[in-house]
Structures are given as structure tokens and as C-alpha cells.
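Hi L.,

As promised, Glycosyltransferase family 39 protein:
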Amino acid sequence: MPQRTDRPSSAAPALWGYAAVRAVGLAVLAVAAAVAGEDALHRLKGRWDSVWYVRIAENGYGHEVTLPDGGVHSDLAFFPLLPALERGLSEVLRIDAATAGLVVSWTASLAAAWGIYAVGERVAGRRAGVVLAVLWGVYPTAFVQSMAYTETLFTAFAAWSLYAVLRDRWIGAGALCVGAGLTRPSAAALVAALGITALVTVVRERRVTARMAVGVLLAPMGWLGYVVFVAVRRGSATAYFEVQAAWGNSVDGGVALARFVWRNLTGPVPLAGVGLCAALALVGWVAWLCVRQRQPLPVLVYTLGVVVVSLVGAAYFGSRPRLMMPAFPLLLPAAVALARLRDRTVVLVLAGLASASAAYGAFTLLGAGPP
């Protein structure tokens, strides 16, 4: 009898491989931080968005920062599940909320790697699933997976929700989507994946099952619930979107991105603009490979949805690779190609990628940021 994908014994190679490449990243950061006289743990749990999550965990919502130009950054821009887990874990384990954030993130990273393996195994086979999980661990901005950020928690929910859909477990998929929706706004892509898949299934089979209906109705409740919470708190139906716009995260259809690329192309160092164009072209090409690979509909819709959400906002350009990181099926074409090679070649390639990712992570975390 073949092993079930959702059992730890089946996923062990993926989990060990993922843990190994992330350990390389942490080791390189520790050494680089020691040489620079910096605190590596502080870089992982005490800077940028991590500080906002800890403040929410400790004091609840209500904190605002007024910028020199008069703009206001509100903590309502941050979804509630991570700070809620930080608060609960800090009380149970008697640790500070920042450390609790790392515990949540590191635990969720293993759950995410397991879910990524499960999806990869179901779509392309066990070997490709293992490689896919490890590739996600050497993604250029994979250092964020070791920070007290929401990327690992969200990806864990998303991967297991997609796996549930692939196994026709609609209620479980919807419940996991609720968790994703309480974690990050990009859960909209996962909601779309479930909704479109259900619609296509209904059209093809000309029937609606009760489980499917419940799952689809559940899916948006996390994201929608938080948007409603902000609306009630601020007394405005569009309050959440106004808060995001104040942070510079409004949806502009990609106008800000196009302007940024154009400024670099016409600036003093046009090579930077050429590099940006090449990077965007690479994303487009990989997305096309996913389509040609005929990935299952929910996986494909989710992947393209996360990519679109990451590109159509007016967010800081440097954060876009991080925002795109939960779109792990983008790595599936590469995982399938690598899985065809000999073990020694695969190990060498992944080791090289792990080293490059670790070096970039240490450089970024010890720099000015933000990631």
C-alpha cells in the first residue's frame, strides 16, 4: 500500500531537506551578524513588520504613527491571526511576544513545507514534491520564512487548503481558507481559487454538493470578517482600504510598478531598469510554464492570483518578491525538471541555491531593509 502524502513519514525527506536549507540560512546569518557585531535574533524578530505584530499582541489594535509628511500608518493594516497566536503562546510558554512570533513562524514553516510537498506530490509525484518543498526553502527571499512574519503561516494554510480541494475535501479547504484570510490580504487569491474551481465543477457536473457549498461559503469569511471589523471600528465601509492606501498599498492596477521600472530605465543607471524588466519577464515566463504544465485549476488560479495581487498594488517595490513567495507552485516546473536528474546533481544544485539564498538573506537582514 502506498504511503499517504499527509502522513509525516511520507513527507520526512521534504521536511528534513527544507529544515536543512533553512538551517544553512540561519547559520550564515549568525556568522555574518557576529562578524558585524549585530544581534541575529533581533534581526529576525525585532524589526519592521515584526514590531507592529508584537505591539498588537501586547496591546491590541489602536496604535498609529504620524509621518513627517502628515501621513498616518495604522496598525489596522495588519491582520490579526499572527499577533493573536503570539499573545496566546507568550502566555502559555511564559516568553515574550517577539520570541513567540518566531516560534509560530518556524513551526508554521514546517507545516508549510509539508503542505507544499503534499500538493507537489499529488500533482507531479513524490520526488518532485520533495524538491518543491526544498526549492521553496531556497527562494531568494526565503530568509523571511525565518522571521516573525506571516508568510509561513499564510503559506501553510494555503497549501493545505489547496491539498484539501485536490482531494475533494471542501469543508476542510474552506476552513483553512478562513485561517489564511485572518493572516494576510492575499488570501483573496485562495478564495478565488476555491470559488472558480467550484463554479467550473458545477458547470461540468451540473450539480452542487452540500460540502462544496459550505466550503465555498466559508472561504471568504476570514478575510471578509477582518475587513468588516476595521469598517465597524472606523465607521466607514471602506476603512480597511483607506488604511492600506495610507501605507502606500492601494491597488492601482500596476501603475506604480510601471512608473518605478520606467524611472529606472530612464535614470542614470538604465541597467537596473533592464534587470527589473528581465525579472518581470521571468515571472511571466514561469507563470506560462505553470499553465503549460496543466497544473490543477485551484493550484493555477491561486498561483496566478498571488502573482497578480503582488504586482497590481502600489507597494514598495522591494517587497514584491516577498509578497509573491506564497505562490509556491511557480517553482513546480523547476521541481519537475530537477526531479528528473540524478540524486547527486539535485543535491549539488540545491546546495548551491541554499548558499546563495543564505548569503542574500544575511546581506538583506543586516542591511537597512525593509525586506
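The first helix runs from residue 8 to 36.

Thanks again for sending the construct details.

K.
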